[in-house]
Automatic annotation (TrEMBL):
<keyword id="KW-0004">4Fe-4S</keyword>
<dbReference type="GO" id="GO:0046872">
    <property type="term" value="F:metal ion binding"/>
</dbReference>
<dbReference type="InterPro" id="IPR033756">
    <property type="entry name" value="YlxH/NBP35"/>
</dbReference>
<keyword id="KW-0411">Iron-sulfur</keyword>
<dbReference type="InterPro" id="IPR019591">
    <property type="entry name" value="Mrp/NBP35_ATP-bd"/>
</dbReference>
<dbReference type="GO" id="GO:0051539">
    <property type="term" value="F:4 iron, 4 sulfur cluster binding"/>
</dbReference>
<keyword id="KW-0479">Metal-binding</keyword>
<keyword id="KW-0067">ATP-binding</keyword>
<dbReference type="GO" id="GO:0016226">
    <property type="term" value="P:iron-sulfur cluster assembly"/>
</dbReference>
<dbReference type="GO" id="GO:0140663">
    <property type="term" value="F:ATP-dependent FeS chaperone activity"/>
</dbReference>
<protein>
    <submittedName>
        <fullName>Uncharacterized protein</fullName>
    </submittedName>
</protein>
<dbReference type="InterPro" id="IPR027417">
    <property type="entry name" value="P-loop_NTPase"/>
</dbReference>
<dbReference type="GO" id="GO:0005829">
    <property type="term" value="C:cytosol"/>
</dbReference>
<dbReference type="Pfam" id="PF10609">
    <property type="entry name" value="ParA"/>
</dbReference>
<dbReference type="GO" id="GO:0005524">
    <property type="term" value="F:ATP binding"/>
</dbReference>
<keyword id="KW-0547">Nucleotide-binding</keyword>
<keyword id="KW-0408">Iron</keyword>
Length: 152
């Protein structure tokens, strides 16, 4: 099914293909890498949350990528703080800095932090473009920073 999804779909001209996989290094990961290898990808961007358990999973994914010859282009820390819907202040509700520390340990670029944002979740649930609605928010700026670092 992964092969069919990646190869048999007419994607057209792509700058990026985002493949969201579950944590770990399962058969799905191996199948995905095997299929993508034939398409000569530039590499993978890995996403972690700041907590130690997630960082450990992504560390194993870095090792997996390196063993399979898939370059790791960077690490993003997701759920990095919580944006208050009332005052827009961002507060850490989990530990912080796990993604950045991991990037240093494995010598890959740290691409940035994306906070938990209730308005983003609401937009996603209703099919509304968050960037159109809240393009001047700190969360939108965080996304723009990550994308700019990816493109550089």
């Amino acid at each position: 099914m992964i092969r069919q999804f990646l190869v048999d779909v007419c994607w057209g001209e792509l700058d990026y293909l985002v493949v969201d996989t579950p944590p770990g290094t399962s058969d799905e990961h191996m199948s995905t890498v095997e299929v993508l290898r034939g398409l000569n990808p530039d590499g993978a961007i890995l996403v972690t949350t700041p907590q130690a358990l997630s960082v450990g999973d992504v560390l194993r994914e870095v090792t997996f990528c390196r063993k399979t010859g898939l370059p790791v282009l960077g690490i993003v820390e997701n759920m990095s703080g919580f944006v208050c819907p009332n005052c827009a202040e961002c507060s850490n509700i989990f530990s912080s800095g796990g993604g950045e520390e991991l990037a240093k340990v494995v010598s890959v670029p740290f691409l940035g932090r994306i906070p938990l944002e209730p308005r983003l979740a609401e937009c996603l649930e209703h099919g509304v473009n968050f960037m159109d609605q809240f393009g001047d928010s700190a969360t939108a700026a965080a996304f723009k920073d990550v994308v700019a670092r990816m493109a550089s």
